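User: Please fill in residues for this 387-position structure.
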């Protein structure tokens, strides 16, 4: 196990009706709030009205900026920074999913500095401070409600980049599983894949002697798969929605990776699909992860063997480790197919003519990954395996 430090300050209010806690969280602490949201789902499902009631009860002055698109764009972040600075706002309140939360975090970062916000994403500036961000979560997926990251797309050059720093961890997250009942099926299962991928990025590691987090990861993966099948049968199953929502936060607040070397190559490879073709994040991961697994499993047969045995209960009687590992990967891919996610570029209707460019963008800061360090050629091979 590696040495680590763990910081997870986000206060979580979880469960049906937890929005009613918002006014007491805000009262006396924040005076001027930027309410940030997406393209309308919160106005259809009542989340917007519930939030406004609470803001009024808390007696805060609030400003609004809607219109965040999935794979959130830099231009709206710049607009938000201006509103926050012009109006001396002291809390950015994200009501939505990862895109809204990430946009809110970037606004909070940009509003606390005179430097250009994109320079932080390019690594030219070091993060020191950010305004507080609060979250009302409407889709379990990214874990951004408690994570240290924000991922923004610069629409001028199709670069999708992230900034990671503890000051970007939201101060509170209100998580009501009933808010997720209105999710369309494709978003529900894209979210499921994203949650699993956040566990995978930590689980598939070369770090030895990490039993505690091995078991946490395996238990989380099993629970997410079980409840995904429940939602495939019945989308209005509150218990299954609650299980997935809880898993989503803890899959990406750092807990699963304690003492381990993370990987993150698959995320970087998948981000290029979103940057060029606006592919939904979870869909791009469903396409890339099986290909990545098939490309790297021989570099750590032990962990892929363990994945097959402990997550999918595959029998290893009389089988070589390599076969067991491959059966685990096949089981995982067949799970994705059963919940209706595309697992190839072809099924995702993604063009197959930009592999070199995407591999170049993925390695903009050098080789990626840890279980197997990947260079441009490796990444092109993974895109080819995903065809
Ligand atoms: O635009 P609205 O109306 O909000 O609709 C959204 C959007 O169309 C809709 N939606 C959300 N909640 C809903 C709902 N529709 C009906 N009922 C509800 N309750 O779902 C669509 C997708 O929303 P989005 O926020 O884009 O989804 P997600 O949470 O998957 O966020 C994806 C973004 O987060 C980044 C991804 O790269 C991507 O840009 N990530 C952020 C991370 C982080 N900050 O830690 C880590 C992740 O790995 C990821 O990279
Ligand atoms: Zn992700």
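Assistant: Residues filled in for all 387 positions:
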């Amino acid at each position: 196990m590696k040495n680590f430090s763990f910081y997870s300050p986000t206060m979580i209010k979880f469960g049906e009706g937890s929005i009613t806690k918002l006014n007491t969280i805000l009262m006396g602490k924040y005076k001027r709030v930027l309410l940030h949201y997406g393209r309308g789902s919160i106005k259809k499902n009542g989340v917007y009205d519930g939030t406004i009631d609470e803001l009024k009860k808390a007696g805060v002055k609030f400003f609004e900026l809607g219109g965040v698109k999935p794979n959130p764009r830099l231009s709206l972040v710049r607009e938000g920074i201006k509103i926050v600075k012009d109006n001396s706002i002291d809390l950015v309140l994200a009501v939505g999913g990862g895109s809204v939360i990430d946009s809110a975090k970037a606004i909070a970062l940009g509003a606390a500095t005179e430097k250009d916000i994109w320079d932080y994403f390019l690594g030219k500036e070091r993060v020191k401070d950010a305004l507080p961000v609060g979250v009302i979560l409407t889709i379990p997926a990214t874990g951004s409600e408690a994570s240290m990251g924000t991922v923004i797309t610069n629409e001028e050059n199709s670069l999708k980049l992230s900034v990671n720093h503890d000051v970007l961890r939201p101060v509170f997250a209100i998580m009501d599983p009933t808010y997720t009942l209105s999710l369309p099926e494709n978003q529900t299962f894209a979210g499921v894949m994203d949650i699993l991928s956040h566990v995978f990025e930590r689980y598939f590691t070369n770090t030895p002697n990490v039993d505690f987090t091995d078991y946490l990861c395996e238990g989380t993966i099993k629970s997410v798969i079980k409840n995904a099948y429940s939602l495939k049968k019945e989308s209005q199953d509150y218990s299954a929605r609650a299980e997935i929502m809880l898993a989503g936060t803890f899959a990406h607040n750092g807990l699963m990776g304690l003492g381990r070397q993370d990987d993150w190559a698959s995320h970087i490879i998948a981000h290029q699909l979103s940057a060029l073709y606006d592919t939904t994040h979870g869909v791009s991961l469903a396409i890339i992860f099986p290909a990545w697994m098939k490309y790297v499993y021989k570099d750590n047969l032990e962990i892929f063997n363990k994945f097959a045995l402990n997550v999918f209960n595959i029998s290893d009687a009389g089988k070589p480790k390599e076969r067991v590992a491959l059966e685990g990967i096949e089981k995982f891919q067949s799970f994705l197919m059963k919940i209706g996610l595309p697992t190839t570029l072809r099924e995702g209707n993604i063009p197959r003519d930009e592999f070199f460019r995407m591999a170049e963008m993925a390695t903009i800061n050098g080789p990626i990954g840890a279980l197997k360090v990947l260079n441009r050629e490796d990444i092109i091979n993974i895109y080819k395996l995903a065809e």
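For context: The longest strand covers residues 32-37.
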